[in-house]
Design brief:
Length: 240
């Protein structure tokens, strides 16, 4: 991972899934406590894909549930596939069934991307929702991100025009993988976050992590929070 240019960057490598999940949980809980203590709200953006599922499950555990004041949390997504929320490909659907449905979060604080809409309409409505709750001075407190084997993150894919978007915070995209129609956050809102946590597990991510350390054109290389902090949380399998 490129180390220069960030507000600050940290890499943590965990020996097994349990340690990886516990470390991820600790980072989320600590950020929630800090945000709520300092600003009264914790604004969290969840990533999609399979990697974060063990963390979602831990967040719904009794211990974690009790340790975060979920009534002070706003939940967003980094991206969504344009499928119904009940579709197994839905990022919202996965987070809801594994975690959010078990937490005392007010429904109005769950800012779902309307995947059942067309990408353009879903992105437009999400942009409005984001701008009602976030601003230049009120960024996301914590963003969870994954990385694909092609170096994509959120639904920012290599060579996509969405990588150059510098005004809108959410845009419709056509992903080169199914489901293709999606909505994704853009670099301006992602890189404004106070902290970004890349969650990476598995041997199949080792090669792309190697490439990220030199290829600055890849979408995941473009994640450079300033003045925020960037943390890469890897398991041993994924570590180059
Ligand atoms: C998505 C995700 C995407 C994901 C990576 C890694 O909607 O697909 O937001 O960016 O994080 O593709 O996916 P896995 O965790 O399943 O490997």
């Amino acid at each position: 991972m490129p180390a220069d240019g960030y507000g600050s960057m940290k890499q943590i490598i965990c020996r097994d899934l349990s340690t990886w999940t516990q470390t991820a949980l600790r980072i989320v809980v600590r950020q929630a406590h800090q945000a709520i203590a300092e600003r009264g709200r914790f604004r969290l953006a969840l990533s999609g894909g399979k990697t974060p599922i063990p963390l979602f499950r831990r967040l719904a555990d009794r211990g974690s549930l009790a340790s975060i004041d979920w009534s002070c949390c706003d939940i967003f997504w980094t991206d969504e596939r344009c499928v119904p929320p009940t579709d197994e490909a839905s990022n919202y659907g996965a987070a809801w069934s594994e975690c959010l449905s078990l937490l005392p979060i007010p429904p109005a604080s769950i800012h779902r991307i309307a995947g059942e809409q067309t990408p353009f309409l879903a992105a437009t409505r999400y942009e409005q929702d984001l701008r009602e709750h976030l601003s230049e001075t009120t960024p996301l407190d914590l963003v969870l991100l994954g990385v694909g084997r092609d170096g994509h993150t959120a639904s920012l894919f290599p060579g996509s025009a969405s990588l150059e978007e510098d005004a809108r915070w959410a845009v419709p995209v056509c992903a080169p993988v199914d489901p293709s129609p999606r909505v994704t956050l853009t670099l301006p809102i992602l890189n404004a976050a106070r902290r970004i946590l890349f969650l990476v597990r598995g041997r199949d991510k080792r090669e792309i992590l190697r490439r990220l350390s030199t290829d600055r054109s890849l979408p995941a290389s473009r994640i450079e929070p300033r003045p925020g902090e960037l943390i890469w949380l890897l398991d041993r399998e994924a570590s180059p």
